[in-house]
Amino acid sequence: MCVFWLGSSPVSDRLPPPSIRGVSFSPPRHFPSALSFDLQSGALASDDALIFNAPETTTPSAAPAAPLAPAPLRYDRLVLPGDFPDPTIACIDGVYWASATSAEWGAVFPLFKSHDLVNWELVSHVFPDRLPAWCDSNFWAPEIFHENGKTYVYYTARKKGGVLSVAVASADRPEGPYTDHGPLVGEQAGSIDGFPIRDEHGVLHLVWKNDGNSRGEETPIWAQRINEKTLKLTGKRVELFRNDAPWEGTLVEGSAIVRHLDYFYMFYAGNACCGKYCTYAGGVARARSLMGPWEKCPQNPILTDNATWKCPGHGTVAEKDGRWFLLHHAYHVNSHEFVGRQGILSEFRWNAEGWPEFENNSPQAEALTDVTTLNVDEHFGGPELDLNWLWPVGHKPETELRNEQLHLTASAQRLGSIVARRTYAATYKAATTIDFAALPPGTFGGIGAIGDPYNALALVAGDGVLQLWHVKSGKRNVVTQVWLEGCDTLTLRIEAWGGQRYRFAYSTDGATWQPMPLDSFAINGTYLPPWDRGIRLGLIAYGDESTSVAFNHFALRNQR
User: Fold this and answer.
1) 319: annotated active-site residue
2) Which of 153, 293, 349, 485 lies at a 20 to 30 A Cα distance from 402?
3) How many CB atoms are closer than 10 A to CB 323?
4) Which residue positions hold the site described Important for catalytic activity, responsible for pKa modulation of the active site Glu and correct orientation of both the proton donor and substrate (predicted)?
């Protein structure tokens, strides 16, 4: 029999009980060993295939007197749910490929493929294991470029101890493996958002943003020729334009250029990209020559907020069957910075003046009506972790899957070793079961809501005690603890409401839940998301590197 007794310590950032109409968050009376608990009724979908299937949208109509042709498929939809900022898209041999910013989570730059622009499969990463030798952070804004049987990914990263730079990697196949060729440009203010494009004479150029806003300066968009043999810049750079319109605020960035009829069209973004107070929007400019002069659209911004999506922008153009699309990111109003910027496909048309127009000047994608399709049940039965698992960039932990358990090697650095999953909603439950009796002395295992390794709320067990950790700016405080005896396995659970309020519970028998004792109903987690990322749900192993933690299962149940 497992025996427990309680202890607690004070912590700030407490909140009163939430009042959310029509939603019950009481723990279930029975919690079976399969972890098949639910926030709402309905069958649970597995994500083992790693395929995001977006819901199809049809146009209702009255019954016609005679058969009518079916309405055209509406492509406006959420296609990359979760935190996938700055997405890129390219059509290679009839297959669409996409990637997005990884920021501070590995593996770096996910690679998705699709045959229809709607259903996307995660198949690999540009840098699945090791980072390029020259850089260590800020893995932003990849751009996929394919020519003559070769695939290139231009990307942003920060030099070790240095500045933000634009670099390039190449592969013989879109899925890789990729060879890195290092940085092309890194100005003192930083260089980001590289985009390759051939000019009207067929000469390859790199277009990028000077990150002057990081120093309170303007942000010119530059273009410079690429030496195709050395993959280095050559010749003189030319300024295409900079932020000079009121709506653009402190910056223009995220250039994506397409040639249509007699013009080059540059889709770009302006103003503040990220976080609760973002003001991002999308604009477009055009020129008959790549080197200009460039004319900004009089109707800018052409892509703005609506009641469902906030701060849309930074994307790449795709064409299918004569229809035009921008794959870009935006925050969903219900989850915002707690989930992050999600990948949306928005269709546009060319107007009589030759400018692109989005319907209602905003994303028309519907919110995902059934977030339970993104529920997760991970039993660790395969040969290795699937591609959806993440880790802090540069700190890939040692993992082994055997006997339907994940064995995660511990670390005493920061929060410990972490493997994590993206979140898809701001209200959810997540749980894991650990082999509590097998934990070595001084080793703790558990589950956490993680902004980064310096900011987290985690429920961890070890040395006969269960502790709730409040980690903020790298400082760890034990909020409360429960002493345990005689437990073989221990199931730990996180409940989140709106990304802001968190409660924690545990089960010693797989049937009943005990809440962690708190002085208030929930803990405030509004501090968790970094400025540019959503929250991850992580499994944690803290302790000496010679030890490990065994996890039996991981489950995520999305509510809204």
Assistant:
1) no
2) 485
3) 14
4) 193
Q: Which of 76, 83, 86, 211 is catalytic?
A: 86
Q: How far apart are CA 498 and CA 179, in angstroms?
A: 41
Please name the residues in contact with 447: beta carbons below 8 A apart, sequence gap of 6 or more. 430, 431, 432, 458, 459, 460, 492, 493, 494, 537, 538, 539, 540, 554
Distance CA 247, CA 283 (A): 9
CA distance 108 to 96: 19
Check residue 214 and give its pLDDT.
96
Please report the pLDDT score of residue 66 as a whole number: 55
- Whether 86 sits among the annotated catalytic residues: the reply is yes
Q: What angle do CA 388, 476, 519 make, to 5 degrees?
A: 100
Alpha-carbon gap, residue 526 to 248, rounded angstroms: 28
Dist. CA 297–CA 281, nearest whole Å: 14
Strand extents, DSSP E, 211-360: 221-227, 232-241, 252-260, 263-270, 281-287, 295-296, 309-320, 323-332, 342-350, 356-358
249 to each of 140, 221, 360, how far by Cα in Å?
Answer: 21, 15, 22
- For residue 295 the two structure tokens come to 């004319």
Structure tokens at 541: 């192993």
Q: What is the pLDDT of residue 424?
A: 97
* Residue 135 amino acid letter: C
309 contacts 330 by C-beta, under 8 angstroms:
yes
pTM over 0.85: yes
Rounded Cα gap, residues 31 and 38, in angstroms: 10
Q: Which of 76, 134, 124, 128 is nearest to 99 (CA)?
A: 124
Number of H helices, E strands in the chain: 1, 41
Contact 553, 380 (CB under 8 A): yes
pLDDT digit string, tens, across residues 12-23: 333 333 332 232
Q: Measured between alpha carbons, how far is 224 from 555 in angstroms, rounded to an integer?
A: 49
Length of the chain: 560
pLDDT at 65: 52
The two tokens of residue 537 are: 């749900």
253, 347, 452, 532: the catalytic one is: 253
State how far the alpha carbon of 278 is from the alpha carbons of 218, 244, 253, 275, 370, in Å.
18, 19, 15, 5, 27
Question: SS3 letters for 129-181?
Answer: CCCCCCEEEEEEEEEEEEECCEEEEEEEEEECCCCEEEEEEEECCCCCCCEEE
The answer to whether 481 touches 492, Cβ cutoff 8 Å, is no
Residue 215 dihedral angles phi and psi, to the nearest 5°: -120, 15
